[in-house]
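Technical note accompanying the year-one report. For the benefit of new consortium partners, we illustrate the data format agreed upon in the data management plan: each record pairs a sequence with a structure-token string. No post-processing was applied to the example shown here.
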Amino acid sequence: MNPFFSNRRLIVLLVCLIFLVGLIGYSLSEQRTLSWPEQFVQDSVGVVQSAFSRPAYWVSSSLDAVGDIRDVYRENQVLKAQLEEHASVLVERNQLEERNAELEEALELESDLSDYTSHHAMVIQRSPDRWNERIGLNVGAQDGISEDMAVVTSAGLVGKIREVSQFTSTVQLLSDQDAANRISARSDGEDTAFGFMEGIDEESGYLRFTKIDMELEVEEGDIVSTSGLGGIFPSGITIGEIVSVQSDEYGLSQTALVEPAAASHQLDYVTVLDREAPGGDDNSEEEEEEE
């Protein structure tokens, strides 16, 4: 080969290398203006990157949002469960506090009626059809319960034992309309008036205190309690407060409407009183009856 062409190729190669090195150095310089080829390339790359980066960013943001929503939902479910548990605990605590208060009142009542044997009982049955008539207790003959024993709360008289089985018993409430549901009572006001509690007045919902002597002064606000006559009930157990007084339909006696002291619509625990004292002696003679 001709040496001239070989030298020429070498010279061209060296010139290209020098040009390339210069171009690289020029490109790396910080302060310079981009040439139009560089601007074209850079703008083209920027457009392509923008076209791909925006959808990618939107997809990524959407996935993050879905993940956040899922996390918030899970946190809400956890918080909801905690709130329900907290509410359940509060309800249970309130119920326990109410039961403790009722039991404490029952113990106080027992100390006040130390002359009578007390049997604490829990209400286990109450029929909606006979809501104002009967309740069932978890004590019976095996616990010393017998018919006609007084049933009370710390507020006052509730009723009397009507039926007894070996392990349970049924209470006839003061509000029962049964004609045989009569309890000897007295009012303590300006005059002491005796009469009978005979069920409930259907129109007003108050208890009926009947057979009150027309000559006696009985007024609104007088307290009605058990008289103790006949020995079935201890004397002095509060029944309620007189709210009105009127003559009976024949004008022979007075009838008073009494607001009961014991809330019979909400009974959980009651106390049954044995009419015999702990020593076993009968408290008094049989209850007087009036036709």
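Partners are asked to follow this layout when depositing records. The chain has two domains: 36-112, 117-274.
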